[in-house]
Amino acid sequence: MMTNAIIRELVQRGHEVTFITPFTLANENLGSNYTEVLIPQYNFWPTVLETTKINTVVELTNVPTLKLLKLFYIMGLESTNFAFEQQEVLKLIHAKDKDDKYDLLLVEQFFNEGALFLGHLYQIPVIDIFTFTFANYMSSLVGVVTPWSYVAHGWKPYTDRMSLLERIDNVYCSLTEELMRQFWYYPAQDELLNRHFSKHFDKLPTIKQLERNISVILLNTYMPLEAPRPLSFNMIPVGGLHIKPAQPLPTEMQKFLDEAEHGAVYFSLGSQVKSSEFPPEKLKIFLDVFRSLKQRILWKFEDDKLPNKPANVMVQKWMPQSDILAHPNVKVFISHGGLFGTQEAVYHGVPVLGMPVYADQYLNINKGKVAGYALGVDYRTVTEEELRYSLTELLENPKYRDTMRRTSRIFRDRPLSAMDTAMFWIDYVIEHRGAPHMVSEGINLPWYKFYLLDIIGIALVIIIMPILGLLLICRRFQNAKKSKTKSKRN
């Protein structure tokens, strides 16, 4: 969604764009300056099923954070390997005319660091597009130390005000991921590059070396959705750039919302989590609560039929989410807490009832709860009474909408729009040949220097050596004293 929006804008502004993607934009007729390299879509489901032993995405809510992280790293390795096997990608890698072919490599970064190899081959700067918000492992990526004392891991439901136990868990999770990347994931990505290309190129860079070619990172976030934290010059928040001016809704849907005298509730769990996969007892809870409301319900439901559907409910397999949230009669958004949907809700000022399932969704909803524009329920344990209370509270208590409107004003108030900001920095990196003056020297330090482990080691030696020396002197003195006492007795 974010990458596609950037690609469309670049083409519209006259850039020559070659887009490697499994999701075609050809039907949009973007223009003669758009070239598409279409590759097959990687099927991640077999890996998900094998690693987690679940049957539906909804069940990911039961998977522990570190196991989920390992799953995504495995998927990243497999999808990178899959991409390197595609003939369309290999043609670009082995092309003879690489000189001055491109000015910039844009990479959507989601556990696919091997894609940075193209920047090395074509000798061009790289801009990373992070479709999620900050990640703690970005520390070594940009050369800025992330303080785990108040910066929560992106997949933990903690704010910047953590309790002692939360900080312990946050440090454990962040440290484990850092070690996982350094000693397993990076070597595995390096092995992939060597397996595919060692016979074709004299010397291959490591993934860590490829990451040093990243000029700018475009982050899918913006205040106040993110608490203040250390940033480097080349970390650019552009959250919400995918949001466009509202378009007219389909006639039937427009009429359904226009005639919602008491307002409407929009219910969608995104593209991956399907409410049609709810067990019957869970579906009954939602249907009974919706039936009892005077508001109308727009429900993104992925099946053709919904048994026992109340009269005030409209279901469709797909809905234009941002355009729906822009309708003045939409009062509450029931969401899984995905980042794009959260940004759209904030942009349009619609309070959120969150039902997170996995990854950053818990954090996104918890931030909304702390800020005062959201409530949350647990999919695994939610009851009819809890769901009804939460919806009623959001619908009838004006403090949530007032808070969300204030949040929306902050989110919208920028010197440049999110898209114009992204375009500025893309042009800037091209104009200044990678803009190396924006990149911290910290990225060139080995991890033990970056985290000052060598200094800490020296400090420990300086502290411990005198203590050990004193203990040794005391022990010798004690032994000498014992020996003298024994001699007197003899």
TrEMBL record:
The keyword Glycosyltransferase applies. Keywords: Glycosyltransferase, Membrane, Transferase, Transmembrane, Transmembrane helix. It comes from the Eukaryota. Pfam families: UDPGT. InterPro entries: UDP-glycosyltransferase, UDP_glucos_trans, UDP_glycos_trans_CS. GO terms for cellular component: membrane. The chain crosses the membrane at residues 450-474. It is a single-pass membrane protein. It is found in: Membrane. The keyword Cytoplasm does not apply. This is UDP-glucuronosyltransferase. The gene is Dgri\GH20036.
